């Protein structure tokens, strides 16, 4: 018995997938209004203000992707199933299992399951002797009674298993084709669930497809080349890394960001004391609070991160962004090495956390800029277009700050050497220009438009240079 992909799509209840009609999708195109202070769209609409020339025009984050609806995703999968089924002369259900095994890389599919074994009239699970026509077997020829197969499939589908339902025989990993499973499921509701799980597994195993991780979102992202790049869903606006479906994390790679986030979770109690918003002023010892994204504490002219004199940071290099390793630590006691390891982690964690908090504070600045532009437009002091550069400056600041935040997990796991020194140098340059941009955005009224746009250009240039040299290499 064979069930093709199209028949699944027609039998399944699309509402369970969150798929609406085209008319309903059109009505939702406007989306919800942006939450107050949200700068989720800071990647859009700033190109004209930071025009790149020559070699600098290369954008290391440029990535081609397509947002597919449920029906479009089904069409892509069906075409590849038909191609493999015709080439190998197998049923579409079997072709799907082969495709899943090879991550849907059609050109690499070279073989299929072939085996034979004698049938038995005894069920291998309940050990009951049954009539021959009551025994069912997969191509592996392991025979079991229909009742045992039904119970096996029902339990696994209720547990959320789709493609992974395999033969009941011990040490047999042969997976069951869908046209074998579907007739064994006793209720239509269970069959619908199974179809959804199959669709999920087909998409997740496909090297060019990813399900949007947004809540109840049916959109599938399609790319030509699977890489750790930023993609955004056209339906729910969720932004994520295509490769790992986690938050976008350039320049840190997927494996490293997983290690970092796990470490942060494991060491959360250890790092609690540095997660507070307050510090003691290095000059007067009064408890102070950071109320803006910029790290320049104006009152006493010091750096929020290292508490050092702001003037000593210089215009080229930020010493406080580089951890100074102890070259003799390998010759010291285990206790000393453990203290050094903790010190290093806290150094990078504090800077990671600080930029995350700066992003939240700068979201408030963004909202104030929006209100200020609205007020000026209402008072006939220009149009939205006239003041758009302020809006774009705040978005670009968030974009740069976000990239800078993710440089610290990258640096933490980086081996010492010339490449790390280059990275730290570029990281420091980016940090310096972001602080300059943050200062000017927070005080936009005191700076000329040309001065602010020039600072935007410099900051974005630093960001792109770092990503070009270190992102996904």
TrEMBL record:
One of its Pfam families is Ariadne
Any idea where this protein resides? Nucleus
Q: Please note every region of biased composition (Polar residues).
A: 1-11
| Transmembrane domains' residue ranges | none
Residue ranges of region Disordered?
A: 1-43
Domain RING-type per the UniProt entry, residue ranges: 119-324
Write out the entry's keywords from A to Z: Metal-binding, Nucleus, Repeat, Transferase, Ubl conjugation pathway, Zinc, Zinc-finger
EC number from the UniProt entry: 2.3.2.31
Q: Where is the composition biased (Acidic residues)?
A: 12-37
Q: Which family does it belong to?
A: Belongs to the RBR family. Ariadne subfamily.
**UniProt-recorded name of the protein:** RBR-type E3 ubiquitin transferase
Native organism is Sparus aurata (Gilthead sea bream)
* Gene label: ARIH2
